[in-house]
Amino acid sequence: MGSKYFHAIQILDENCTGCTACVRVCPTEAIRVRNRKAYIDPNRCVDCGNCVTACEFHAIIPSSDPLDIIQNYKYKVAIISSSFFGQFTEDVSYAAAKQAVLKLGFDEVSEEAMVTDFMISIIRDYVRKNRDKRPILSSNCPAVVRLIQVKYPSLLPNILHQEAPMSILTRYLREKISKEKNLADEDIGIFLIVPCVAHVTAVHQPEGAYKHLQDGAFSTGMIYGKVRDILKDIQNNPEEIDTYPHGLTWALSGVQAELVDTDDIRALSVNGIDNVMDILSRVENHYLDQYDYIVLRSCTNGCVGGCLNVENPFVAMSRIKKMSKEGEDKPIHVEELEKLHAEGEFSVSPLAPRPIMELDKDIKKAIKKMKKINEFLTMLPGLNCSACGSPTCYALAEDIVLGKASLDDCVVLKRNNPANEEE
Questions:
Q1: 76 and 56 assigned to the same domain
Q2: What's the pLDDT band for 212 if we cut at 50, 70, 90?
Q3: Could you list the residue range(s) of the whole structural domain that residue 364 is in?
Q4: What is the CATH number for 178?
Q5: Is there a contact between 248 and 325 (Cβ–Cβ < 8 Å)?
Q6: CA neighbor of 249 nearest in space, from 143, 116, 98
Q7: Domain assignment of residue 354, yes or no
């Protein structure tokens, strides 16, 4: 996997058939298949999870932390992604699902949904104060932030330089608990329950200036499996617990843009990694300067589409909408959050581009290699079939020049070469 970049994805060689399904769906061309086994270039991978979903052989699997790591801390806090509550059947109440998480051994359970209204006010304020940059791009999806670093580095200044809601909540809770419980920072363990591998990666290796705030991340699927055993008792003996149903809609694509949109702010929402790349290309070419703010989510329908979830994203979306309509939020006092925001605690510095593969550090040698790539490209069929193990013919030509593949890897050329026919 490489030591420079942490990734919450691993390949099980024994399960890999070399089918190249993963190669074809990777947005940054980070995957190759050689000798019938897939491998991931850690410099290019953005942890979008496309390969996890595409692999029918369970050879590419997501990883998250084991639950027992919470025992390393005196006071244990879970922060739940707003997509979590859409995973349960409608006979399981929102309050019961939250109470069940608490019963797993946490001292306190909090929710991303608590601070989404506060986040909207931060975004509007930021957009209004940065009129020189258009459009501002959301920073809530870690896969999109990494995608911009890898493929669209010219847009890095356009990213919203504020922490995401779960990190804002983490910063607030850490200070609050430390004062109230008289605990040292290292005694407080704060853990996220997340819908996708990009969020796991972001906890373990925050990009650039993004602060390392949490102590671990658990997959929604793992927590879902564990709380199912607890839910029956809780449903029969419900306890009072605060809920924030209106904030749950943060998990759905389109909602954040609708909430940010005002008379002086025009917002656009995009979901799905292919659509995100199309929009980012248009932003680079200044075709979308009329928008003030663009929300970009790599998963279908937003965070409900994350590969660590258990429910179909459309079903989960429907359930969350129902909860939001029928429920009432516990009032939230944001004075402390506003104080931390005024002190700059939620701000982050601009990110640097991620240095991906160079042809050569020497510009003259790089130009020679580029000419060789074009020469090999004229020999290749241009089908972009991925059967060679590279995502496109251009990628194969590049791999050949860098000594990572050969022309013999092209199955079309081998098939058409009379020398390869049986006598």
A1: no
A2: low
A3: 359-423
A4: 3.40.50.1780
A5: no
A6: 116
A7: no
